[in-house]
Specification:
Length: 347
């Protein structure tokens, strides 16, 4: 076999061939699994450090091996079911994590928080451990990267975890005319909010079905229910996908015990609009009755899991808006959403 520098090497190890890189990846995986097993014989503080080291080994192994093959979680005699929340470092994801932590405390189930910002994840996890006394794992992942969902599932597999409750919350907004959007960001949005969400559902569903049930919360938006939103073309379209995807998935799983809901919030007090650079303008122009606190939204969402509706629109005002846009003819509804969009895109 001829020498072939691995793309991850950056030219630093030109003498290594593909078989060498494969062996390095396998060794890193072995180290990660060994750290996982050792973690149960140490203190809780030391366990967290070992888990971080394990994650570093496994993540590097994924990069070296270029792992993008689909991963499906399967229950085994030693596996445990967890609650998995993406976009868990702030906003709606953090609030849902707090609500799930209370449930996990009684069920003695681990909680897995996923986001891009490790420092915020760890701060949030420390508070949950302190306040709720639950086992919390922090996994850093940018699900906007191709193959990231499979790598995340592989990390759960290495920890011998399946998923009982999945919250697909990670997302971001892009404002402006569609043709002016940087395509790299547009593609990342679709990867994160369409492909990534579907991939995680695909990977966790079999264990839910064979295990007698599970719960999937796909965080969509009121924007996915309106018949068009100029200035937020991909955002509203991706949220509309999540709604139809969730409804179809729920119908397929009526007899399996797996509960699937599409959460469609309106305006929530989070940092979402600040990141888009429109927070001040929206807060100045929108009445308070249109806003909801993230913890209130989380409480309503978890309560809705005990109901029968797949489409969950929290708040009376939001339900009225959803009903209005649904029953209005397309052209009048389009004029309303266009006028609304223009008003809040003005600087």
């Amino acid at each position: 076999m001829s020498a072939d520098p691995h793309p991850e090497s950056g030219g630093l190890a030109p003498g290594l061939n593909q078989e060498d890189w494969h062996r390095i990846g396998a060794a890193l995986r072995y180290m990660g699994r060994d750290l996982h097993h050792r973690s149960y014989a140490v203190t809780a503080e030391r366990r967290e450090l070992l888990w971080q080291e394990m994650d570093a080994c496994l993540h590097l192994a994924e990069r070296i091996e270029g792992q993008t093959e689909p991963v499906v979680l399967r229950a085994s005699p030693g596996s445990r079911a967890c609650s998995l929340v993406t976009g868990a470092s702030s906003g709606i994801g953090a609030a849902l994590a707090r609500g799930l932590a209370s449930q996990a405390k009684h069920a003695a189930a681990p909680l897995v928080l996923v986001a891009r910002r490790l420092d915020r994840l760890e701060a949030h996890a420390a508070q949950l451990r302190r306040d709720q006394g639950v086992e919390v794992h922090c996994l850093v992942s940018d699900l906007a990267e191709p193959g990231a969902a499979w790598r995340l599932l592989r990390q759960l597999q290495e920890r011998e975890l399946t998923v009982h409750t999945l919250v697909n919350n990670a997302g971001f907004g892009l404002g402006g005319p569609f043709e002016r959007l940087p395509w790299e960001r547009a593609e990342a949005m679709l990867q994160l909010m369409v492909t990534g969400c579907a991939a995680l559902c695909h990977g966790v569903l079999p264990a839910m079905q064979t295990g007698g049930g599970g719960r999937i919360i796909n965080v969509a938006s009121l924007a996915g229910l309106v018949p068009g939103l100029p200035g937020s073309v991909l955002y509203s379209a991706s949220k509309a996908f999540l709604i139809r995807f969730s409804q179809s998935l729920a119908l397929e799983n009526r007899q399996s015990g797996v509960r699937v809901i599409a959460l469609c919030p309106g305006y929530v007090h989070t940092e979402f609009h600040a990141v888009l650079g429109v927070e001040e303008r929206i807060r100045r122009n929108l009445p308070g009755l249109l806003w909801m606190e993230a913890d209130d939204l989380a409480r309503r969402t978890l309560a809705a899991l005990d109901g029968r509706r797949t489409l969950v629109v929290p708040g009376l005002v939001n339900r009225l808006i959803a009903g209005l846009t649904h029953w209005l003819p397309e052209r009048p509804a389009g004029r309303l959403t266009t006028a609304f969009s223009r008003r809040y895109r003005r600087r």
